[in-house]
Amino acid sequence: MEASLESQMNEIMSQPGVTGVLCADEQGLALSAQGTLTPHSAGLVSVVTEKACQLRHGTEPDEKPVVVMEFDTGNVLIRSHNNSTLAVHKV
Amino acid sequence: MGCFQSCMSKDEPDSQGPTETSRLLPEPTQPIPTMSDSSKTDEESALNRVLQKTANDVIDVTYIEPHSMENAEVSGRTREYRSQVASLRGVSRPVAKLPPNNQPPAVMLSKELVSPADVRFVTDRSEATAAAVESMEVKHGEPLVVQFAAP
Prior knowledge:
Chain A: This is Late endosomal/lysosomal adaptor and MAPK and MTOR activator 5. Chain A: InterPro entries: LAMTOR5. Chain A: One of its GO terms (biological process) is negative regulation of apoptotic process. Chain A: Belongs to the LAMTOR5 family. Chain A is α+β, with helices and mostly antiparallel strands. Chain A has helices at 3-13, 42-55; strands at residues 18-25, 30-35, 67-71, 74-81, 84-90. A 5-stranded antiparallel beta sheet of chain A has the order 2-1-5-4-3, with helices on both faces. In chain A, strand 4 and strand 5 (84-90) form a beta hairpin. The termini of chain A are far apart. The model of chain A has no long low-confidence stretch (mean pLDDT 88). Helix content of chain B is 48%, strand content 0%. Chain B is built from 5 helices and no strands. The mean pLDDT of chain B is 76. The interface between A and B is medium-sized, with 34 and 24 residues.
């Protein structure tokens, strides 16, 4: 049932520098998580992108922003598309 | 009564089988067999072999000959080991990604931002992941709704 989603996640994890990936639905529930990103952070990731979309004024509503959080251990890039949110932890 | 019977019949011959006073071990009618000279020699040689093997394999830590080393050699080895340990310590330290916060704002803001390649990568992957999520459908082998026969 989720074979296509798992293959996408595995392909993202195989990229150089990627240590974690997380996919959440529109309700903030984790669909898949691998590596350093755990299912516990699915709700927070969804809320971050939702609030980031509200901050933007004068831009097209269909254009979704990419939120980048810089940590000492790397960057976490978050973007939502349609009804799912993707978070990638990259060093 | 059983006690009287055993006391009074102790002189009678043992014709009714073993009793509580009958001997358990047979009488030593035959002499104990002694080792012959050849077998004794084999035993001794086998014992000697075992002792030799043990002496070769066992390391007696309580008796170690004092190994004398010169002071210069000892200090040289100490220096070398300390330098190796110090070099290993430096390798394991992780490189800090975030810039230190004691710099002026102009320097901080002029730091390199996230690379466009990473932004493009996340954008493409999020679209592909959304398509994969939408293509998910429940596959079931048995019917999910069963009709019960209503009276």
